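Example 3.2
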Amino acid sequence: QINFLNSVIVDLQRKNEELKIKLKKLALAEFNGNDGTDGFGEAVSKREKKPPPRLFCDICDCFDLHDTEDCPTQAQSPDSVPHTTYHGNPAEERPYCDICEAFGHATESCNDDQTF
């Protein structure tokens, strides 16, 4: 019985040494940037890459069509009033019409025919 137990201990020590060598090889291979297979049957599995996040538009509240930054409703509509091109003196007071809500003429000189 003692001889059997001694043989089991010797086998376990030998297996332990083999596993230590295998562990050192795997650690060295991973440190060097290899995939860690080095001729062994079992490979160290790499983490699977996650798919890129889906496009989502906060304005339209929809997935996969476009991103919020690329939303077509953000673009200035063609029938909107263009930005001012007035480059006059900022200290000079410009005439403004409260009826038309536009610069260019005073309220007193507004043509009522244009209002609706």
